[in-house]
Amino acid sequence: MLIDTHSHLYDEKFDEDRDAAVDRAKEAGVGRLLLPAIDRESYDAMFALARRYPDYCFPMMGLHPTSVNDNPAYREDLETVARYLADPPEGIRFCGVGEVGLDLYWSRDFLDPQIEVLRFQAELALRYDLPLVLHTREAWDEMCDVLRAFRGRGLRGILHGFSGTEAHYRKIGACGTFLLGIGGPVTYKRSAVAELLPRLSPEELVLETDCPYLPPVPFRGRRNESAHIALVCDKVAELYGTAPEKIAEITTANVRRMFGDAIFS
Q1: What pLDDT does 264 receive?
Q2: pLDDT of 36-83, one tens digit each?
Q3: If DSSP codes are grouped into helix, strand and coil, which group holds residue 72?
Q4: Is 54 helix (H, G, I), strand (E, B) or coil?
Q5: From the CB of residue 111, how many other CB atoms can be counted at a distance below 10 Å?
Q6: Entry pTM
Q7: What is the DSSP letter of 8?
Q8: Residues 135-146, mean pLDDT to the nearest whole number
Q9: Which residues contact 39 (CB under 8 A, 6 or more apart)?
Q10: Long-range contacts at 169-175 (CB < 8 A, ≥ 24 apart)
Q11: Taking the domain 2-264, which CATH number applies?
Q12: How confident is the model at residue 62, as a pLDDT?
């Protein structure tokens, strides 16, 4: 079984064929979809998908770092995240706190509020004993600095779309238990993460699509979807010189270890 640990299948880009996309994922051997939240504009669509497929789609709760930028109401949005985690909507069980983190790609002007929001949500992850799904873009040094304050407190989670260095991974690994989220970019010709993987163990990885974004080869330039996780698995298996079935087995066991009964009960 494969697990897509990062799927935005509730995104409006799937409004015309969402059920068909779920069917294609199942046909590709995907046994679970984990749904990271973005912001209050997307929560209802995510809840609707999770309710439609309660044993297949598992939602998270969180505020994305770019949703902090130019948002004077970000603290109110944070309170919404806290309220949902304390009292989930009917029919909803959250499996993680995410997608949260730091994103300085567009601007560094919002670093301080992004750090504030990340710290708040890391505390929520600890409070509810949930994995933290971290988005980091052009901010790996800053992410290491933030997580250092949580060292020894039992923080755990996934480094979504990992694009840092081995040194970044080791620094973050000293702050908690984190797995690397590996997606479509591992299939690209010039892929730093593809060069990094042979120096790591498959037991440190999970697979993801980030659909509808970051499609693997040969779908670059097109909408990504969860069924394409099989192509990511194939490439990871190639890099390790093993069978895709073995990588599927190992990464699924890694997900089980990280998320436990939240998605396997």
Answers
A1: 87
A2: 999 999 999 999 999 999 999 999 999 999 999 999 999 999 999 999
A3: coil
A4: coil
A5: 16
A6: 0.97
A7: -
A8: 97
A9: 63, 64, 67, 77
A10: 169/200, 171/144, 172/143, 172/144, 172/147, 175/144, 175/147, 175/148, 175/150, 175/151
A11: 3.20.20.140
A12: 98
- Res. 153: pLDDT tops 80: yes
Written as six digits, the tokens of 40 are 């209050």
pLDDT surpasses 90 at 265? no
How confident is the model over 170-188, as pLDDT tens digits?
Answer: 999 999 999 999 999 999 9
Please state the domain extents for the chain: 2-264
Give CA–CA dist 11/33, Å, rounded: 14
- Which has the closest alpha carbon to 224: 208, 238, 239? 208
Q: What phi, psi does 122 have (nearest 5°)?
A: -65, -40
Burial 195-215 (b: 16+ CB within 10 A, else e): ebbeebebebbbbbbbbbebb
d(CA 143, CA 92): 30
Rg of the Cα atoms in the chain:
17
CB 32 within 8 A of CB 58: yes
